[in-house]
Amino acid sequence: MTVFFFIKYFLKDFHQYFDKISNCNAIFTFDLEDSLLEIGSESKTSFIKQKYRDILRFLLCNYPAILKYPIAVRVNHPDTIEFQKDLAVLETLNFVNWNTIILPKIESSKSVSKAISDLKSHQVNFENIGILIESEKGVINLNNIIKEATPDVKYVFFGHADYNLDRKILPFKHQLDEEYWDWVQRLLDILQSEDLTFINSPCLYLKDKKLFLYNLHKLSQFNFKKIGQLTLSLEQSFLCQKTSGINRSFSNLKKRKEKRSVVKYARELTDIYKDQSSEKSFSISENHYLICPQEYKMANEFLKARTWTS
């Protein structure tokens, strides 16, 4: 199984952290996109992104050991100024051979072609391109996107957080919901005749080992040769290496789903999110659920709409 592991490259003790994670069989992935933003402030978001571009450049210039391993980076959408800033930094790292450049929020083949052309003109060295499908429009256009894609495109990622937001769903659907797997099936049906690898969306319940194993079990049930997983922790990454040994009952998982009103859920989620640390676009609840900015935005919109209509 191909594993893309979003690593914590912003840690002060990164050397020790990387020594700890380096023995897992994953493509170590840096993020310059959704994990770096300040909701409601484009100027602060731009500042944060530039700060972390500088951190990325510093690490790769001063910690050459990481270059012995496959590495990837998720850049910003090809049609944004932030992508142009990403290019400027990546161009200075011409000694790096990226295993994969991940393009987010893809809805057309034009965006993919533009990004690849820009990367090559800036002499960014890469082996593969991955595209992230994160909206209904992206799903609808996926067949045309991959038909018109260059051979550089090897991976199709699913981003279920943005997809939930695009569908105006609250609470978000995750790997415990059958609807989530209907979405995955829909994508795999489109990719069936293509020589591409599908990369499943990350599991946001960071400490829930049983749920993550259930997620891997569900992936294994699809009749699709090339499937991979995005991970958010070392434990998740290691579990992906044990897919052949998954043979257990998951019957109690669905009983654990919480039943509460959408209003209460939205209020609790936004309260937790507002207490987040600075320069992070996410927050983590007491039960180790990662509250992503997309769900916070959806919950906030829901509560505002309810206020206006009440």
From TrEMBL:
Domain annotation HpcH/HpaI aldolase/citrate lyase: ranges: 59-169
Residue ranges the record marks as coiled coil: none
SUPFAM superfamilies (UniProt xref): Phosphoenolpyruvate/pyruvate domain
Record key words, sorted: Lyase, Magnesium, Metal-binding
GO molecular function, one term: lyase activity
Organism in which the protein naturally occurs: Rhodohalobacter sulfatireducens
Cofactor: Mg(2+)
Protein name, UniProt field: Aldolase/citrate lyase family protein
Superkingdom field: Bacteria
